[in-house]
Amino acid sequence: FFDEGLKMEELALNEIECPVCYENMTSPIILCIRGHNICGSCSNKLYNTCPICKGAFNSRNLALEEVATKIDTLRKNILQNQQSVSPFDILDRYKTKNTIAQEVGRIIANELKCKLCNKYSYQPIYFCTNGHSTCQKCEICTKCCEKKTDGRNYALERISKQLEYPCPYKEFGCSFILTMEQTAHETVCEFKPLRCPIRDYETTHCSWYGPCEEFKNHLAHSHVSCQLYEVPNFVLHLKYNSNAVIFALGNIFVISILIKTSSVFYKMNVVGSKRNVIKYRCVHVVVLDGDVVTTVVMSPSPDWCEFVGGIFLDLINYEVALVVSIAEA
Ligand SMILES: [Zn+2]
Ligand SMILES: [Zn+2]
Ligand SMILES: [Zn+2]
Ligand SMILES: [Zn+2]
Ligand SMILES: [Zn+2]
Ligand SMILES: [Zn+2]
């Protein structure tokens, strides 16, 4: 009847339970040299001796403290909200339990995600010298800038093995359940909201984001001067700093044009689903007064997400056009 994710929640709660007083640990959590965790007040009574292995206490487990504190806040919040609904409704309780399991998963996944490279480290999880979790690749703690040590956070490793958590874009309609082995889904999730790529050169970057389907609406309201194309082949006249958005071949492309004294820079991005990027091939032909100046072919490649081109041209005396054609490779 209950969700698989519940096992994970039990496991997490088990790991944050003090082995001496059986209370849920929050902060501080003291770590022995072999990786056992004991609550702060029990550790004070134990004269620097781990009750499990008799080893000495080494440092605080700041990573587990963070997870434990967030889980504690979550439970308090849910308990508070629960008072407003009927406590006898079994369905409500089922929903609440599922929410806790999923949220716990999200809390732990967040703890294991490197803020520098966005990769997940879950097996093994190393400490920094202060007791935070560190990334395996970056070697440096993103919380305190201290170095990675050889010490491992076994408690977090045990939890993360069972970790299942919903795709972060669940609220946008994704029902994918991730495990630590499948975190790559996040980058290709088709429900990932679109961040508005339009930059008006004098002002700051637009802060809008939302589902792909609402992007066209946003353009019409907030970027009136932006040129819209719904075909993959067209001619763009380069006169001013401008943006062109192309809705074609099931994706969204943006061309940004920046004009400086005697040169034109243009940039093309795929802003829709990046999963399909390698399917496209694009040809840009720069035409000066009707003559072809240069032809740029972008062949299928994962780097295609952003392409920057530039040409030096006398814009005062010539008409410059960019002939764009995007096709499926
Ligand atoms: Zn205790
Ligand atoms: Zn120990
Ligand atoms: Zn990293
Ligand atoms: Zn640190
Ligand atoms: Zn997803
Ligand atoms: Zn915008």
How would you portray this structure in words?
GO terms for molecular function: ubiquitin conjugating enzyme binding; ubiquitin protein ligase activity; zinc ion binding. One of its GO terms (cellular component) is cytoplasm. Pfam families: Sina_RING (PF21362), Sina_ZnF (PF21361). The chain crosses the membrane at residues 244-266. This is RING-type E3 ubiquitin transferase. The protein is α+β, with helices and mostly antiparallel strands. The chain has two domains: 5-188, no CATH class; 224-328, Apoptosis, Tumor Necrosis Factor Receptor Associated Protein 2, Chain A, CATH 2.60.210.10. It is built from seven helices and 19 strands. The chain has helices at 5-15, 40-44, 62-82, 90-112, 154-161, 185-188, 215-222, and strands at residues 29-32, 37-39, 57-60, 126-128, 133-134, 148-152, 164-166, 177-179, 194-195, 209-210, 227-229, 233-237, 242-248, 251-260, 263-270, 280-288, 291-298, 306-312, 320-328. A five-stranded mixed sheet has the order 11-13-14-15-18, with no helix packed on it. A four-stranded antiparallel sheet has the order 12-19-16-17, with no helix packed on it. A three-stranded antiparallel sheet has the order 2-1-3. Helix 1 packs across helix 4. The two termini are 47 Å apart. Residues 86-91 have low confidence and may be disordered. The chain binds zinc ion (ZN) (6 copies). Residues 167, 169, 174, 176, 185, 189, 191 line the site of one zinc ion (ZN).
